[in-house]
Recover the amino acids of this structure.
């Protein structure tokens, strides 16, 4: 089953570092990614691909890279046809 | 890249049974050596792409190796084929362990970190495993030790000279009369090496008594690596044995 989700990450972030980390993880998980708003307080990402791997992406980004502290994650799902 | 386009021994063939795995190092890089149930040996990066667990802690099932941590299963080419937590998932090809070319020759498992290695010897003479020595020391110390210890013939009596020749960049042969020991040198790190020793010849001739006989040679080589002497016979006991 394919899935699509938008994530809003908030915390003490370094936008470049976090986005690079997210892109790397998305590539590893074979997910397409689109970066929305990105600053040092909040970053919005949209990913789509296998639903299980969207979950894995959320798990990875909830921790984030070593120089970022994620304090809050909001997820907005949209199910796609397989 | 350390190791260049050379082949390096990473263990004696007999030490990795079908269906088992073991960790080793080459120039500090962590590798897993494993043998599938059909008997084919594999050398991979020792790291599951999922959470970084060493695959050498995993278990072999048929022609797959599975990570101990979450059970992700990898096929012979290193691709993840099955994730137990998501049995229906068509696993992306991006979940792949780096794999290295692997050969077996002279009773040893060989690998190269290069994608374009030098050709591998074609001949396949029978060997009998002797011993792998893991010790602090350099390749130079190992070669020096091989040259300093006399190889006592197994069956024949007499006083044939011990001859040490370099067969390949990482392989030496120590001969005395009809007896010949292959010594593959593995640089596990900057300060540690492994020396894999195998006896050339048929198992009917050397298995058992022959292995016991040459074990003394192996132990003397170890001692010579760990306690090198600037001149003369390198190890206590050798001089006496030669007299």
């Amino acid at each position: 089953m394919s899935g699509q989700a938008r994530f809003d990450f908030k915390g003490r972030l370094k936008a470049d570092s976090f986005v690079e980390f997210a892109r790397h993880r998305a590539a590893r998980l074979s997910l397409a990614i689109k970066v929305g708003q990105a600053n040092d307080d909040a970053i919005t990402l949209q990913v789509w691909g296998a639903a299980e791997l969207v979950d894995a992406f959320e798990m990875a980004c909830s921790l984030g890279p070593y120089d970022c502290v994620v304090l809050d994650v909001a997820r907005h799902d949209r199910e796609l046809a397989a | 890249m350390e190791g260049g386009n050379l082949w390096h021994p990473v263990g004696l063939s007999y030490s990795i049974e079908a269906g088992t795995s073991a960790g080793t190092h080459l120039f500090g890089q962590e590798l897993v050596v494993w043998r599938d149930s059909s008997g084919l040996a594999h050398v991979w990066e020792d790291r599951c792409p999922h959470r970084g667990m060493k695959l050498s802690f995993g278990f072999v099932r048929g022609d797959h190796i599975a990570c101990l941590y979450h059970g992700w299963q990898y096929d012979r080419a290193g691709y993840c084929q099955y994730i137990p937590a998501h049995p229906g998932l068509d696993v992306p090809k991006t979940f792949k362990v780096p794999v290295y070319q692997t050969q077996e020759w002279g009773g040893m498992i060989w690998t190269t970190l290069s994608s374009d290695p030098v050709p591998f010897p074609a001949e396949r003479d029978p060997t009998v495993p002797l011993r792998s020595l893991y010790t602090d020391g350099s390749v130079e110390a190992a070669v020096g030790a091989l040259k300093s210890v006399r190889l006592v013939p197994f069956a024949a009596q007499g006083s044939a000279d011990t001859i040490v020749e370099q067969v390949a960049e990482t392989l030496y042969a120590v001969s005395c009369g009809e007896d010949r020991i292959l010594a593959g040198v593995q640089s596990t790190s900057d300060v540690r090496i492994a020396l894999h020793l195998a006896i050339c010849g048929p198992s009917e001739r050397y298995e058992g008594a022959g292995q016991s006989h040459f074990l003394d040679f192996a132990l003397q080589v170890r001692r010579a690596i760990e306690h090198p002497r600037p001149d003369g016979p390198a190890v206590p006991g050798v001089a006496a044995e030669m007299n």
